[in-house]
Design goal:
By secondary structure, this protein is mostly helical. The chain is built from 8 helices and 3 strands. The protein has a 3-stranded mixed sheet with strand order 1-3-2, with helices on both faces. Strand 2 and strand 3 form a beta hairpin. Helix 4 packs across helix 6. The two termini are 39 Å apart. The model has no long low-confidence stretch (mean pLDDT 77).
Amino acid sequence: MFKKWSLFIPSLLLVFVVIFLLVEKPNAPKEVTFAPLFQILGKFVQTADVAFSRILSAGEWDEASFGAELKKRFDDEYEISSDSIYMNELLVDLIETSRKDFGYTVYVDQYMAPNAFAMPGGVIVFSAELLELLETEAQVASILSHEIAHIELDHCLNAFKFEMAKDKYDLEALDLFSTLYNV
């Protein structure tokens, strides 16, 4: 009996994927491509991520207070420089229509490779090296806006909640989703 189920489930999954491809008809520029597979995988991973991140109820996790704690630590770690003052002044115009109730803060990291990332609670870290590579204020604003969008759309919050739920419920099987999400 077990052998029948072990073949039935993968077969059912394969049929589902074929039907999904026929219905969705993903847009791909070439005739033969892996784009449909990655589009399906992306939808599945995103859905799984949101579902599992909701295991931890919102009452247990307050983004604003977490961001305040991060800011306390980062205030000690990162020095105020002319770059950080400039970035935070630029940030004021970019968050005028923010739906989040907490303040945003940009920290400029002098030692990090060219990169920028966002964290829950309105914390954005921008490398000085990336700032040097950019040629216009519009380029800086576009990267800051991208990081703000991660916070506004709860990408950072969901990622942290996902990791906390995984640890809280000892769900080692979810490491695959975590790895795929963080790539």
